[in-house]
């Protein structure tokens, strides 16, 4: 093999994990290859078209997976530069400090992480700066300690959401501003890159103002001459050397051909499901159950959160444009009447009639779908699902992904929904009083693909890190216990899923692992600063 195919580091995947790591390593001068199966998301008017994005699922992968009964799943996931961060709602939360310890849930135990919150705190800070998080410390009662304020002020509530925040506060709750990664400058609206639109959560940003891994990380990384990005490059498997302790070659399908690349270090970051699938597909003589899988843990403990979208219909309209500004964590760890964690309440982007028509929610009496869309407050509820070894990713004999999942800890979510319903009774509408609120209506989240399991947006846990090689795949540095040069930096490493959105934790961990990799490569911070041409 020619030296052209040899790199110091190969990173597979450009999402929250891989993209962030590439950004961090780029100024080191090390020879870095980034492999991404998808292409850039095209910039086109359709980026902001709810029918194209939500109904036609135009940008989603067309890949078909299977559930445990052999039914076809069309996963709600995206293969492109920037990974799922191109489409995410950019709500960028830190896990709570207690999420790193063992927590007793109604449905069982949420296990402790092998690192503490304090180990990740400096990297959360870096990640918040890198992803331009807009927030306000001190409002959320469950917020962990932070070493500095958010880099940007919180995104303001629009009047209808402010009214709701005031009502929640009057009812004894502690509503807070959701930390979001959008490049909004409310003080200088004429200069602001973000225009505060209604097509953000679930949509790519047409004006490149969302803090996603392509715009902020990959585009910056490839400015360095030592960094190469190959798109449309699907990694099929990893091959080891004769000893079985090192990944020797990364086998890639590109332009219809098979190519091999060598990396001194290989970092897998394909998203929790595809990373597990890649390791399982890479089984060989030394690793008969899949690469790095002497523990038989690869692919197990799949988690994706118990999520629901609940529309609270009011007699008053909700003309909000950018709705994802308010959160409530008062029930995150429990309440006076229930001692177990319930989860997190916030918002999705404002739902519209086109999206609702395809999603077929239960209809409120006397309302059409258009009216419902105009009058709804569209809540997003997340509860923790627990790591069950039987909830897992496997590969069938044709190489297809099989996702086996039985929901757990469901009472937590039902209780969270009931808490929201109760909180809305305090709704003090100046026109209709308490009668303003007409009820809560569930919306089928995955329009056009009505199998809830297909909703894999928060996938995590399939390649967990830990101290014990018998019960975990990765060590605390996210290096495989079984191999000398294999790392994983996407959402796979989570030993528990907590109940806030996962992306900031994936980004912060990628920066943490990045520091370890730089140390291992002998690339000092001084060497990193000023090398290359990124500005
Ligand atoms: C609609 C939506 C809204 C969301 N909103 C939020 C939110 O508000 N806040 C939040 O924290 N999280 C949110 N998420 C989740 C968030 O986007 C993910 O947690 C995060 O992107 C996961 O990062 P990752 O690095 O694990 O994987 P990904 O970002 O999925 O990146 C994986 C990358 O690997 C590539 N890849 C896969 N297989 C291969 C292969 N074999 N060869 C080469 N490349 C490969 C993929 O194309 C992709 O680019 C949302 C997700 C979606 C879909
Ligand atoms: S709200 Fe801002 S960041 Fe989000 S899609 Fe619109 S312009 Fe882009």
Task: Characterize this entry briefly.
With 535 residues, the chain is an alpha/beta fold. It has 11 helices and 19 strands. It has helices spanning 16-25, 50-55, 117-130, 159-170, 213-221, 272-281, 353-359, 369-375, 410-424, 503-521, 525-528; strands at residues 6-12, 32-35, 65-67, 72-73, 103-105, 108-110, 176-177, 227-230, 233-240, 247-254, 257-268, 306-314, 326-327, 344-347, 376-383, 392-395, 401-404, 437-442, 486-488.
Taken as a percent bin, the fraction of beta residues is: 15-25%
Number of DSSP helices? Answer: 11
* Overall form: globular
Category from helices, strands and their pairing:
alpha/beta
Largest sheet: 7 strands, mixed
Helix content: 10-25%
The topology string of helices and strands comes to: EHEHEEEEHHEHEEEEHEEEHHEEEHEEHH
| Mean pLDDT level | 93
> What is the end-to-end distance?
35 Å
Task: Extract low-pLDDT stretches.
Answer: 446-451, 525-535
